[in-house]
Every structure is written in C-alpha cells, then in structure tokens.
Amino acid sequence: MKNRISILLLIIFHLSFLTFNLFAQEFSFAAMSDSRGKYNGINEPILSALTEHLITNQTEVDFLFFMGDLVDGSDIYPDSTLAELKYWKKVMSSVYNNSNMVWPYIWPVIGNHEAQHPKDAINFRSLFNDVFMNGPEDEMGLTYSFDYKNVHFVCINSERWYYGDPEDTTDDRRDWHYVKNLDWLINDLQQARARNVNFIFVFSHDVPFPIGGHLHDGLPNLGEDFILPIDSTKQWYVDQRDKFWQILVDFKVSAYLCGHEHIYGRQAIGGVYQIVAGSSGAPLYEFNPTYNAQPDSIMPYGEMSYNDAVPYYKVLKYNYGPGKNSQHSKDFFGLRAFQYVTFHVKEDIIHVQTYGVYPRENTDDEMEGEIGLIDEFIIDK
Ligand SMILES: [Fe+2]
Prior knowledge:
By secondary structure, this protein is α/β, with parallel strands linked by helices. Helices cover 28% and strands 24% of the residues.
C-alpha cells in the first residue's frame, strides 16, 4: 500500500513538473511601429492611447517590439532627431516603468526616419543601448538577436547611412531599404535551430511585400516612377529581397514583422507570415491600388494610380488585374487602422490578436472611437 502511494505521488510530481514546464514556456509579447507625427515629431495622442490600452489590458505581455520610424527626424539636424527620440522615450515611460514587463521593456528597430543623417545611427545606438551586442560588425547594436524562453527573436536594421567619418556631411550615402548581412542571418538562424527553439520571429522596418504606400521603396527598392524593363540595380534589390525571404522560409520563421507602411495587413508567403503593423500614429496610407473601371483615377493622399502600379506588380509577382487584390497573396487581410499586435506563444501554436482603432472621417492622423480587437488568427508551428 505504502509503495502504491509512493508511485502515485511520483506520477503526480512528474505530471505537475511536466505541466509546469509546458506552462513555463508560454508567454506573450507585443509589436507596434511608426509613431511619427506633429507633436515633437510624434503622434503623441494616438501612441499614448495605444500604449495605455496595451499596458492596461494586456498584462501578460512581457515586452514590446517597435519596428522603427518612432519620430519624424531631420536630415540636417541630428540633434533635433535625438531630442525627438528622447521625448519618445518619455511618452513611452508607462511601458518602461511597467512592473508586469521585463527588461528592456522595448526592443527597438531603426527606421528610415532615424537614419537621415550620418550621426543618426550613433545617436540611436547611444539612446537605445539596452540591446544585445551580437550583430554583424557594421551593424552592432542595431541588428541583434536573443532567445526568450523557447523562442528566438531577430531584430534587423534595414536602414543605414554612412559608417565612415560622421563629420563628413558632404558624402551623401543614403543606404536604405535592404537587408545587408544575409550571411550573419543564416548563421544566427542555424545556431537557433541547433538549440531547438520552438519558434522564430524576425523584425525590421521595411516591408518585403509592400501592401500600400511604399510599392516604390519597400525592401525591393524599385524607386519612384518605375517602368519596365527593370535595370540591374533594381533587379539586385529584388534578388536581395528574394534571398532574404527564402532564408526565412528555409528556417521556418513563424512571422516577419515590420512597419514603414502606415496601415495593417497580414499574409502568409511561402509559409511565413508577413505582418505589417505600420501605424501607432503615423498618417494612415491606402492599400495598393486595385483594378477598377477607371484605372487612371488619382488615389487619395497622392498615392499612385493602378496603371502606375502595374510595373511594380509585374516585377513583384503580385495578384493584379480585374477581381484581384493587388497583393502578393490572395489570402491577404488588412485594415486601415492604427494598431498594435499581441502574440500569445503556446506550446505548439501562436495566438495572434491585433487591437486597433479607426481614423476620424477625412483624417489620416486622428482616431475616433474605442480601441478594440480588430484581427485574430493562429500561427501553427
Ligand atoms: Fe519608414
């Protein structure tokens, strides 16, 4: 009898240990992007409303990723950009002081608005220095990765300027809109898979498959007024984007998160989710123009017409034409809303919930109504 009780206790102990271990791997995180606006370079009312909603309602969230374009920035006054970024940290103080969350509270990624001057990257790195210094040598502190519980996270810089003499402002070497260090990424993901991580997430500012507003300068930097045939420089950007995405597919990355386009959209491409969580205050864009009875019609906010977009669609291999959605995947889902996204990591699935709010009529940078759940889906392992 005594033996039976001992065996029973042992089984209960093992079961509870197993349950605890499974439960211990579960956690939540959040992501948002693009908060620039007219209050010291920030859309403070909307950014504050979203972060307040996040910390009040999502108390299980351990940290937040922010995928760039925090502020307007300046291409001639780096001190002004730095002052805006300092103010951004102040606006986000409720996140930085949130006792439910863990160090460093916010994992930042640089956006093109924080890379407009040779001194910008240095300033950004000095202000957001609570990151891992394990990136490629020329992007140390801007590109980095880490594991949390059984998940691997990679933050990648896609906007850079000049790594030489920061005093030499005559050398205009804007170097935006591509992922440079693909070998570093492959090595990083190989090591993560060797550690048997359960899921991998990748974050950057730029959008590999543009959904609205940046067809001309997502990760495939095709430029404005693009016409066919494509030249070798533009083809290089497309090839670099394709190589980057293939790496994510090969290593079974669960999702790639970005901003740059001030709108919300998700689509699975080759089994990897691209999630654009592109406005926590920045002026909302429209989706890619779709075919209609008047393909030459002018889009609101100065965005390109359908006919102007067709050469981009051809090169990017999009679903375009009558009845098509002008996106890469026919299963695309998107909303013109300000938002943040939460990820609830379980043993075998990720439960994604997006909270957002719609713009006031005829505005693109003011909100109306309550923040609520606007999208929900599951990412399988
Ligand atoms: Fe951007």
